[in-house]
Specification:
Distance between the termini: 52 Å
Radius of gyration: 24 Å
CATH superfamily of the largest domain: Response regulator
Strand content: 15-25%
Number of domains: 3
Largest sheet: 6 strands, parallel
CATH architecture of the largest domain: 3-Layer(aba) Sandwich
Helix content: 40-55%
Shape: elongated
Length: about 350
């Protein structure tokens, strides 16, 4: 039942704050096993009264607060899953949330949603809170595995959009490489060689979509390198407009562009038209999401469609496996593969 606790000083958080005490800390201070701590805090009878008092005093000194998972509440009653979403205003994430909610409802589980606003500190706060309110956590996190583990308190965690090889936690990934391969091949068949990318990941940490874009550019022998990649200031239409303006300024000979997501791609189309370029005649534009919004814009957006609800359903399946003591899904079973949807923009 208990996760692996991080054996580090209680003051060991990067921001200097005091990390939450774990069952290991209590056991170490009281000089007993973790099983004895569990019996004491759960008021089990099979424990010496003096030992129980010593454990409870250690728990009070450390301000130890066992999570729902640690207290064994996963065995009975309603299961609660914490869902951490980075931006509820982005229409991509409510669709993922809908998949989580549908799958959870089918199992009789409830879901608590937390908007991290793509902020590292709010991510850590989410884990600190949800580790006491939920039986498992599913979500998007920028923090590295070691940081997440320090704030998790042993609660099962499923990461969204991290490939199974990119984390030690259970995960559900998007196969960006396969998606980008389809997209670039389509643009190359249409005669494009000067293809740019409007990225949404930090330039100093290449994300899987940018890595796949550059790999495909090399494979097709395109005269394209990292200088053809522009980082958009935000994952929005406005961010796409700003990124497209920068790309047109730096690479005026660009004839096609791949957006990190559909919102950025729609912004790219707006900026291109404002700059006197026709889409797709002068500039082909492709998104990466498959939002319903793409069917409503003019011209309709060609995109790499992601089954967002399936992403959410797979995450709940991972939680169910972890709760049952089974190995999480790995390999192709834990990936969602984008599909090229050709419309009028490219």
């Amino acid at each position: 039942m208990w996760g692996d606790d991080q054996r580090e000083p209680l003051t060991g958080r990067p921001d200097g704050s005091r990390r939450r005490a774990t069952i290991h800390d209590v056991a170490q201070l009281a000089g007993v096993s973790r099983q004895t701590v569990s019996r004491a805090v759960n008021d089990k009878g099979e424990i010496d009264p003096g030992t129980k008092e010593r454990v409870l005093e250690a728990a009070r000194l450390l301000d130890y607060r066992p999570s729902r998972f640690a207290r064994g509440l996963v065995r009975k009653g309603t299961v609660t899953v914490g869902l951490v979403i980075p931006d509820l205003m982005n229409p991509f994430f409510p669709e993922v949330a809908a998949g989580v909610l549908e799958a959870a409802e089918q199992r009789g589980w409830q879901v608590v949603v937390w908007d991290s606003r793509t902020d590292d500190a709010r991510e850590r706060e989410a884990l600190d809170v949800l580790s006491h309110q939920a039986d498992a956590v599913v979500g998007y996190f920028k923090n590295e595995d070691d940081v997440l583990a320090r704030w998790l308190g042993g609660v099962p965690l499923v990461l969204l959009e991290r490939g199974p090889q990119q984390t030690r936690f259970a995960a559900v990934g998007i196969d960006a490489a396969v998606g980008v391969e389809q997209g670039i091949a389509h643009l190359v068949r249409a005669g494009h060689r000067r293809i740019g990318m409007l990225d949404g990941d930090r330039l100093e940490i290449p994300g899987p979509r940018r890595e796949a874009f550059l790999a495909q550019a090399r494979q097709h022998g395109l005269p394209v390198d990292e200088s053809w990649v522009v980082l958009c200031p935000e994952h929005s239409v406005a961010g796409g407009e700003a990124g497209m303006e920068m790309l047109l300024r730096d690479r005026p000979d660009v004839t096609a562009v791949l957006g990190f997501n559909d919102l950025i791609a729609v912004g790219a189309m707006r900026a291109a038209r404002r700059g006197g370029r026709r889409v797709p005649d002068d500039l082909a534009v492709m998104g990466f999401d498959g939002l319903s919004l793409g069917e409503l814009v003019e011209p309709a957006l060609t995109t790499l469609h992601i089954d967002k609800r399936r992403l959410g359903r797979l995450a709940v399946e991972q939680v169910a496996r972890l709760r049952a003591g089974e190995e999480p899904l790995r390999g192709a079973d834990a990936w969602v593969v984008p599909e090229l949807v050709v419309r009028a923009s490219a």
